[in-house]
Amino acid sequence: MGIQYKLLQKEKNTNARLGEIHTNYGTYETPMFMPVGTQATVKSLTPEEIKSMNCGIILANTYHLWLRPGPTVIEKAGGLHAFMHYDGPILTDSGGFQVFSLAKKKEKDIVEEGVHFKSHIDGRDLFLTPEKSIQIQNQLDSDIAMSFDECPPASASYEYLKQSVERTLRWAARGKKAHQNPRQALFGIVQGGAYEDLRKYSAIETVKMNFDGYSIGGVANDGESKEDMYKAIAYSIPYLPEDKVRYLMGIGDPLDIIEGVILGVDIFDCVLPTRIARHGQAFTRDGKINFHNAKYKEDFTPLEEDCDCYTCQNYTKAYLRHLVMTGEMLGSRLLSIHNIRFLVKLTEELREAIRKNQLLAYKEQFLARYQMPKK
């Protein structure tokens, strides 16, 4: 089955949508935030903890799982769900972003067939093609597989981006032809930088291939401005079908999620909530806070008073700071729980605002508090 999308309601004042994704593991409402479990684990957290935060789809990464432990091992285990003991839907990235971000420029070579590069683990020569990426994802048996695309840097010229879009389209067609797992949906990826004509062309041509869903790629690159990110979304959305999922790849900042929903995006993913947790940072309604700050040393209040997560229900800022300052792994675990729940709860509230046609009012209220000076 893979997935099916049902549009429930369009918000009257924006392009926002309330929808349902029907998966092999149940039905989930959108907009949705998806935690990232790159190595078949959301860092430091158990599947039961992920479920307790009301998460739906989670991500795993084709590139990393290809290198360790290898798709054959996971296939023998019964697929990714059995291997990692997660009985919810899983999306696998194609590995394209990692190929282009982890490999050094002099160590990779983009050719029509695929990409030559060196492993970030041991330096050995690797070659990834659209067919190979899809084959690995078929073996992983995720619920949603992603097409293999080129991820050009934000600084790429118009001419390079134009050639890159054409290459991504050819790779998408090859990957779709290679796809052999009937339980697995396959998404196409729209590229084109911040250029309206390239985004339009990429979207129209990708939709012609009739994928199960569509992703807006190339918006989480280093050096890209917020303005360019929002342009890329706005230029792509009008040409994506209303009866398919719209996925913004690699975005997890609360303000970007709100803006993406307003522009018409359904699902988001990002490593941000667990990454900042490992650095002693947490999302709050009043903005991001850093537990290295000495002012929390004797603060015996919860991380966030109105948060329903396990961390906020049981621990104080003083204790969390102590864990962070002593390098205890429980600190990053507890902050990860809060940060993921924060973003999941944000999308729950965005869904409610869409139901009430009050999304712009919600944004205004959120920004008024989120951008307040930190106490």
Question: Quick summary of this structure?
Answer:
This protein has helices at 47-52, 62-67, 71-76, 80-84, 96-102, 130-140, 158-178, 196-208, 226-236, 254-263, 272-278, 310-314, 317-325, 329-355, 359-370, and strands at residues 3-10, 17-23, 26-30, 32-35, 58-61, 90-93, 109-110, 115-118, 125-128, 144-146, 185-190, 213-216, 245-248, 267-270, 281-282, 289-290. With 375 residues, it is α/β, with parallel strands linked by helices. It has two domains: 3-270, Queuine tRNA-ribosyltransferase-like (TIM Barrel), CATH 3.20.20.105; 271-375, no CATH class.
| Multimerization state | single chain
For the secondary structure, the number of strands is 16
Unreliable segments of 5+ consecutive residues: none
Round the mean pLDDT to the nearest integer and report it.
95
State which percent range the strand residues make up.
15-25%
- The geometry reads as globular
- Highest-level CATH class of the largest domain: Alpha Beta
So, CATH architecture of the largest domain? Alpha-Beta Barrel
Major sheet characteristics = 8 strands, parallel
Ends distance: 50 Å
Q: Give the proportion of residues in helices.
A: 40-55%
Write the CATH fold name of the largest domain.
TIM Barrel
Number of helices: 15
Radius of gyration, in Å, reads 20 Å
Q: Widest sheet: strand order? A: 4-14-13-12-11-10-6-5
